[in-house]
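Record 1 of the preview.
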Amino acid sequence: MASTYLTRTPTINGNQKTWTWSSWIKLSKVNTSDYQMLFQCYYGNQTRYSYISYTNSKIETYGGFYTTGASSTESFDVTTTRLLRDTSAWYHLVVVHDSTESTDTDRLKIYINGERETSFTSYDNLSPTFPSLNSDTFMNVTTTENKIGRGNPGQEFNGLMSHIHFIDGTAYDATAFGEYDANGVWKIKTSPSVTYGTNGFFILKDGNSVTDQSPNTNNFTVGGGTLTNTEDCPSNVFPTINPLTYSTTKWNLEYGNLRTNGLASGESAAWRSVYGTLGASSGKYYFEMKVTRTYSVDSNNIIIGIVDAEQMKYEGDNGKFFGTSRGYGYHAKDGKKLNNDSVTANGVNYGNSWTTNDIIGCAFDLDNHKLYFSKNGSWQNSGDPTSGATGTGSAFDLATGYTYLPTVSHFYDDDRIEFNFGNGYFGTTAVASAGTNASGNGIFEFDCPNGYTALSTKGLNL
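->
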């Protein structure tokens, strides 16, 4: 959600002792001490507040008073010791507050992917504070603004959120909102049977609608930013840029890790690669990339392609994925194809050069071990991604028996690169006119070749 957040202030008081929050979240920014607020209710410039946040890779819940010049007084302060750092998956989070329970540790419960957490600390790594018997929170109070995705400025949640439920007056466990499938994988219940109560709501059900889907009409409004839709959801996970690889930590990532926006503070220009969070060893897949800003003096030092996941880990600070034996790329500057090449001038002539605002498509056929690139919908080198084993116009014959990831290398600190892995957006801009997709999986600017699909969990299982 980045700088985007939602807001609503209740018009009627509800139950302040008992409530349940359920949401699916996909993380983008991890290993940081930033407060990434999922849900916050505060009154009087945060002199009284309750919140749920993702901080220091943990889920933190807090409620208390704060007076300027004085220390805070907690009514509850419970933080998981479990670390959440997987940026490729969706997590299901349920937080239950019920101060009417006789046992203090039952008064605040946290579930992650259906499992109840039992090991806790506080936000400052001290002993957790559970709610006192029959104590009130600042949830469900008419003077208390509800915010989703942000607290104060600078406390934005960097990630995706879906299927957000809030229950006023009933304590539900995780099984109300999710269940295990036949393979033991926790999955979403898209229409749970729950009672929402006075201030309860259900938003972001099937897209980016903030209209309440519960029997209530507790609609939210967008308080700031741009709320974009995404095909990436708990039941169909799409790749993003992996923020945990060494090179990627040197770049600023935005929009759910689908855009690089220059180097991080203190970093200098150098070859570095970014990688997708999903890969495949068989099947046919397609993705798109657009460069929206390049270095003004020596532009287009950018290479798009795929790389074997095993060789990704060998790539260091001065990293060129195309310098490995199973890294295959298409160079913007001169249109050459590159593989196992440390000097770009050694590349082989392949297609046209490309530059700012050109859209490059990448189709990789892992059944026939071929790779194709398009520029603004035109396949280069007279390529035909549907030609199968003949590989008409293929950029490369791929080494077999490996798992390949989408990747891009770029050099200069001004470069801005945006990926569309099937969400239908470059940054916050929707594709101009969606092309066709034979599998019905993903939205792209140009036609996805027949027989190809988006690289996603659904696409991997077609």
